[in-house]
Amino acid sequence: MAGAQRRVGLIVLILLVGAVIGSFLGEMASTLLSPGWLQSLLTKGPTVGLKTPATLDLQFLSVSLGLALKVNLAALLGLILAALILRRL
Hints:
The protein is about 60% helix and about 15% strand. It is α+β, with helices and mostly antiparallel strands.
């Protein structure tokens, strides 16, 4: 049971790292490319999540929670590449 949970955690970690690296490379490419359709194709996409963070204020402690996921083509390509690498492992 513990091995299966570790395996799922590893899969999620590898896919997350792939999406982060893909997004980073997309942002790097956007600075190198001239403004146009290719730049916007790689870097533009919807942002899914909370627009403003949810705040819990207890007078002595204030906790803010927020999550936003920016989906773009570069991040999806990184995710697909990570999934292909994961299949080879």
